From TrEMBL, chain A:
Residue spans crossing the bilayer: 6-24, 31-50, 70-95, 107-127, 133-151, 163-185, 205-228, 240-261, 273-292, 299-318, 324-347, 368-390, 402-423, 453-471
Keywords: Cell membrane, Membrane, Transmembrane, Transmembrane helix
Protein name (record): Na+/H+ antiporter subunit D
Classification via InterPro entries: CPA3_Na-H_Antiporter_D, NADH_UbQ_OxRdtase, ND/Mrp_TM
Subcellular location: Cell membrane; Membrane
GO MF assignments: NADH dehydrogenase (ubiquinone) activity
Signal peptide positions (record): none
GO biological process: ATP synthesis coupled electron transport
Family the entry assigns: Belongs to the CPA3 antiporters (TC 2.A.63) subunit D family.
Organism (species): Sphingobacterium humi
Annotated ranges, domain NADH:quinone oxidoreductase/Mrp antiporter transmembrane: 129-417
GO cellular-component term (any): plasma membrane
Membrane topology classification: Multi-pass membrane protein
From TrEMBL, chain B:
Domain of life where this protein originates: Bacteria
Subcellular locations according to the entry: Cell membrane
Protein name: Na+/H+ antiporter subunit C
Keywords noted in UniProt: Cell membrane, Membrane, Transmembrane, Transmembrane helix
Family per similarity comment: Belongs to the CPA3 antiporters (TC 2.A.63) subunit C family.
PANTHER family assigned to the protein according to its UniProt record, in alphabetical order: ANTIPORTER SUBUNIT MNHC2-RELATED (PTHR34583)
Organism for this UniProt entry: Sphingobacterium humi
Membrane-spanning ranges: 6-21, 28-49, 76-95
Major location (coarse): membrane
Coiled coil: none
Gene3D superfamilies, per the entry: 1.10.287.3510
NCBIfam families: PRK09094.1 (NF006573), PRK12659.1 (NF009302)
Pfam families reported in the protein's UniProt record: Oxidored_q2
Membrane topology, as annotated: Multi-pass membrane protein
Length: 505, 118
C-alpha cells in the first residue's frame, strides 16, 4: 500500500530543527520546541506503528515513479518498531536535556543538532534504497560528531577523534560495498536487489560485497574486532548525548545488518560462522572489559559491546526463534541502555562524579529513586519476569537446538558478568557509605522542584516502557513473531515495494 | 581507460590504508580522504564506462535504442563527494582544535588517564 505519511517521522524532526534554528540562542524557546516536537514525533510514530500493525507494510515512492527507478521509503513492522522506539527514547532524552545539558552547550545549537540526529535515525529505518541508507547514515554521523564535540573539553575532543576516524572509515567501506553491488546488479533498490542477487551466480564476488557491508555496519554497531572506538569515546560527552548514542546509534548498525543480510546476502554457512565467531568474541571481550572499569559510563560502554554480541549471535543462527530473540533483545536494549546513561547523568547531578570508588550512600539519601533505578538494573541483568529475560530464552533455546555450544557458553558468561558488575555497581554506588574524604556536593537538591521532575520523568517513562516489555511480553512477542517471519520470508517486503508484477513472471 | 582507472584505484586504496595505519593525525585524515576518492573511482568504474553516448533520448524516438552511459554512478559520486567534503571540513577543524589542546600530532597522546574523568 502506498502512503505518504511514512515520511512524517522524518519531517517532524526536520521542521522542529528548522524552527529551533530560527530561535537561535533563545534557549527557553528551543527547549519548549524540542520537547513539543519530540512529543508530536512520538504521537506520529505510535500512529504509524498502529497503522502498519493492523494494515500491513506501507511504501512511498518519490515523485510517484515506479519502484526500481524511484527512491522508496518502506514501513514494514521492523522499521516502524524501530521508529517507535526511537521516538520514545528521543522524547525521554529531549526532556532530560532541557535540564541536564549546560546552557552553554544549548547556545551553540545542541537542540537543532539533536533533532537532525533523530531525523537521520528515522530516515535510516524507513528508507528502502541502499544508497539512501548511506546518505541517512551520513546525516546521523555528522550530527553525532557535532553533539560529541559540543563543549570542547579535552577528553571530549580526544574521544571525538577516534569516533570520527572510525565512523568515516565505516562509511567508506559501506560505500565501497554499494559500488560493488551496483556494479554487479545495476540497481540500488533493496527489494529489487534481493531479486536480482538471486539470479547472480558469482558467489565469491557477492561474498566480497557482503564483507564490505559487514565491515561498515560492524564498525557502527561495535562488534568484536571493530569496537575499540566505542569505550574510548562514549564516556566523554554529556549524559543526555551519551544516552542517545548508547541507546540508538549502535542499534542502527544492528538494524542495517538485519536488513541487508535478510534481504540481499541471505547468510550461507560461511557468513553464519563468521557472524557467530564475531558474536562470541564480542560478548566475551565486552564482558571482560566491563569487569575492570570503575567509571560508571565506561562500564556501561563495555556492557553495550557485550550485549551487541547477543543480537549478532541471534542473527548468526538465522532461524525463526533466533531472529525473534535478536529482535526482542534489540527492542529491550534500546530502552534499557538509553535509560542507563540517563541514570548515569542523574548520578552525576546528585554527586558530581561518576567514579564508583568516590560514590556511595545514594540509597540512604534517595531510597525511592534508588529502587526505581534498581528496577532498570534488574531489567538489564535479565531477572525474570523483566524485559532482559525473555529474549534470552529464545537465544538459549535456539542455540541448544542448533548445537552452538560456544555461543551458549558466551551467553552464560556474558549474563553472569553483567550481573556481577551491576551488583558491584549497586553495592558501590547505592549501599556503601560515601567515602569519608569525599565532599558531597548535591546539585540535585538545590534544583527547583519542576526541574527535579524534568530530570526524573524520562527515567520513569523509560522504566515503565521496560516494565511493559517485561510484564506484557506476550504483546511484544506477537510483534516480534511477525517481524521475524517478515525477515525470513522477504516476499511481503518485495511485494510492498515492487507491487504484484514481480511474481507474475 | 579502464586499466588506468584500475591501477589508480588500487594505488589510492593502498596509499589510503597505509596512511591510516600511521600514528600521525594529519596522515590519518589524508588517508581517509584518499580512501574516499578511491571509492568514488570504484563506483565510476563498476558503473561500466560508455564513451560518447549521452543518456538523452533523441527527438524522433520514444525509448533508448542504443547502449547509453549510465548517469546513476555519476550522481552517486556527486553525492558522495559533497558528503565527504563536509566530513573532511569538520575533521580538519576538529584536528586543529585537538592539536591546539594536546600540542601533539601523535594519536597515542590522545589517552588522558582515567583519573581525569568526570
Amino acid at each position: 500500500m502506498i502512503d505518504n505519511h511514512i515520511l512524517a517521522p522524518v519531517f517532524i524532526h526536520l521542521f522542529t530543527a528548522i524552527l529551533q534554528l530560527i530561535a537561535w540562542r533563545k534557549t527557553v524557546t528551543q527547549r519548549f520546541l524540542s520537547v513539543g516536537g519530540a512529543f508530536i514525533g512520538l504521537l506520529i510514530a505510535i500512529r504509524l506503528f498502529a497503522k502498519v500493525y493492523t494494515e500491513g507494510s506501507l511504501s512511498m515512492h518519490a515523485s510517484n515513479w515506479e519502484a526500481p527507478f524511484s527512491i522508496v521509503f518502506v514501513a514494514d513492522l521492523l522499521a516502524v518498531s524501530m521508529v517507535l522506539l526511537t521516538a520514545i527514547a528521543g522524547f525521554a532524552v529531549s526532556i532530560f536535556s532541557s535540564v541536564g545539558i549546560a546552557r552553554q552547550r544549548m547556545l551553540y545549537g545542541y537542540f537543532p543538532i539533536f533533532h537532525f540526529l533523530l531525523m537521520g535515525l528515522n530516515g535510516a529505518f524507513l528508507t528502502g534504497d541502499i544508497f539512501n541508507l548511506y546518505v541517512w547514515f551520513e546525516v546521523i554521523i555528522i550530527s553525532s560528531f557535532v553533539l560529541m564535540t559540543l563543549g570542547g573539553r579535552k577528553a571530549q575532543l580526544e574521544g571525538a577523534v577516534k569516533y570520527m576516524a572510525m565512523n568515516i572509515l565505516a562509511s567508506t567501506f559501506f560505500l565501497t560495498g554499494i559500488g560493488i553491488l551496483y556494479g554487479i546488479s545495476g540497481s540500488l533498490n533493496m527489494a529489487d536487489l534481493s531479486i536480482r542477487i538471486r539470479e547472480f551466480h558469482n558467489q565469491p564476488l557477492l561474498d566480497v560485497a557482503a564483507i564490505f557491508f559487514l565491515l561498515g555496519f560492524g564498525i557502527k554497531s561495535a562488534v568484536f574486532p571493530l569496537y575499540y572506538w566505542l569505550p574510548s569515546s562514549y564516556h566523554t560527552p554529556p549524559s543526555a548525548v551519551a544516552a542517545t548514542f548508547g541507546g540508538l546509534l549502535t542499534k542502527v548498525g544492528v538494524y542495517a545488518i538485519l536488513r541487508v543480510f535478510s534481504l540481499m546476502f541471505v547468510p550461507d554457512e560461511f557468513t553464519k560462522n563468521l557472524l557467530m565467531v564475531m558474536a562470541v568474541l564480542t560478548i566475551l571481550t565486552g564482558a571482560f572489559g566491563a569487569l575492570i572499569k570503575t567509571n560508571i559510563r565506561r562500564l556501561f560502554s563495555y556492557l553495550i559491546v557485550c550485549h551487541i554480541g547477543f543480537m549478532i549471535g541471534g542473527i548468526a543462527m538465522f532461524t525463526k526463534a533466533a531472529l525473534m530473540g535478536a529482535v526482542f533483545y534489540l527492542i529491550h536494549d534500546i530502552m534499557v541502555k538509553t535509560n542507563m546513561f540517563l541514570i548515569a547523568g542523574y548520578i552525576r547531578q546528585v554527586r558530581g562524579t561518576m567514579d564508583m570508588t568516590k560514590l556511595g550512600g545514594l540509597y540512604k539519601a534517595y531510597p525511592l529513586i534508588s529502587l526505581l533505578i534498581a528496577l532498570v538494573l534488574f531489567s538489564l541483568v535479565g531477572v525474570p519476569p523483566l524485559s532482559g529475560f525473555w529474549p534470552k530464552i529464545y537465544l538459549f533455546q535456539e542455540a541448544f537446538v542448533g548445537g552452538q555450544y560456544f555461543f551458549i557458553a558466551a551467553l552464560i558468561i556474558g549474563s553472569l558478568v553483567t550481573m556481577y558488575v551491576i551488583a558491584k555497581l549497586w553495592a558501590d554506588v547505592f549501599w556503601k557509605n560515601t567515602p569519608e574524604d569525599q565532599p558531597v556536593e548535591d546539585k540535585f537538591k538545590e534544583l527547583p522542584p519542576f526541574k527535579k521532575v524534568l530530570l526524573l520523568m524520562p527515567i520513569v517513562l523509560l522504566c515503565s516502557v521496560t516494565l511493559y516489555i517485561g510484564l506484557q511480553a506476550e504483546h511484544v512477542v506477537l510483534a516480534v513473531d511477525r517481524i521475524s517471519n517478515e525477515l525470513l520470508d522477504t516476499s511481503s517486503y518485495v511485494k510492498t515495494v515492487l507491487g504484484d508484477k514481480v511474481f507474475k513472471k | 581507460m579502464e586499466l588506468l582507472l584500475v591501477v589508480v584505484l588500487g594505488l589510492l586504496y593502498a596509499a589510503g590504508i597505509f596512511l591510516i595505519l600511521r600514528r600521525s593525525m594529519v596522515k590519518l585524515l589524508l588517508g581517509i580522504m584518499l580512501l574516499g576518492n578511491g571509492t568514488n573511482i570504484l563506483i565510476f568504474l563498476l558503473g561500466t564506462i560508455t564513451k560518447g553516448k549521452p543518456p538523452v533520448i533523441g527527438p524522433d524516438q520514444n525509448v533508448f535504442q542504443d547502449i547509453y552511459a549510465d548517469p546513476i554512478p555519476q550522481s552517486l559520486i556527486l553525492t558522495a563527494i559533497v558528503i565527504s567534503f563536509a566530513l573532511t571540513a569538520f575533521a580538519i577543524v576538529l584536528l586543529k582544535r585537538v592539536y591546539a589542546l594536546v600540542d601533539s600530532d601523535d594519536l597515542d597522546d590522545l589517552n588522558t588517564p582515567e583519573e581525569e574523568d568526570l
